[in-house]
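(Deposited chain)
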Amino acid sequence: MGETITSSLDCNDLTRARHFAYIYETYSGLFDETGRIQKGREIYYYIKGRYYLANHQLDSAEYLFRRLQREGYTLNHQIAACKGLQELYETLKIPDSIAKYANLGYQLNDSAYSLSEMESLQRLKASYNYNRNKLLAEQKTSEAREATISLIIISILSVIILLVASYLIYRNRRKQQRLQEAYESAVDKREDLLKELEALRAHDYDTLISQKEDKIKEQNQTIAELEGRSGKVSLRDFKESKIVKTFAEKSQFSKDHPVPNQAEWDMLEQQFRKDMPGLCRLFEDKGLSDLEFRTCVLLLLDYDEGTIAGLTQSSSQTINSAKVRANQKLFNEKGAKSLHRALKKLI
């Protein structure tokens, strides 16, 4: 009957195996009230354990394999128990335990060969022989060693990544700190120049006043650039403002959204002054006209020349001329083509 159950398991016919196991355990008379089989037939624990293993009842399979290991009195019983436990831990994917029982099985097989205990060993030869156990033991030992090496490598890489990330964070903070210090220094210099300018105005020193005004303009441009580099210029906030969204609707030039009126242009300038004060001061210090000012603001919002002409109720040629003048005043560059890119570099 045991061979019939084993054959069913080899064919993966669990229903047939369970049927014959039930008949064997119920009607053979070989089992006592506690389920213990007649002495000398303990190999059945391995067969029944294989059934539980195939049926994914791993706890029951482990119990029977260990019972065979505990109660089996022959080398063949111990070999079968080790084989069952090895197959169990292969299912559970526990390399150390696989290697352990593979090595133990190898040792028991070696003893079995020495003692010529071959009768039960022949029944297990197809799936568990001396050479396979030795090879499997070496393979599993190698896998366990490789897993340990991989864990060490991963740990080292994690430490390296942590150190690099810490350095980058520190460097970024130092950069922001230096920018903040430069920004504060520029603001302080501008305040000193303003005080000096007021003192000079009181004495009507026109030449010195003009020089101080020029220096203040330079400091304003420096502050605007530092604001852009340190994140103080917030084009994102400006783009998300309500008035900018209103202009986006009006750029569709539909009946429901006529071109902007003077009040809306004033609101756009106020919002620009609030969100991007550095650029606003730069535009004013460079003496941009209203049309040039509006053109630069709309360029920062990525409007093309045709749309800008429509919103300002001007011709494309007029807008192109305004861009040329603004480019000359702001960046001392000729032509209109480079204005948009130059404005973006200030952000």
User: Anything to note?
Assistant: The chain has a mean pLDDT of 85. The two ends are 86 Å apart (CA to CA). The CA atoms of residues 182 and 226 lie 8 Å apart. The first helix runs from residue 2 to 10.
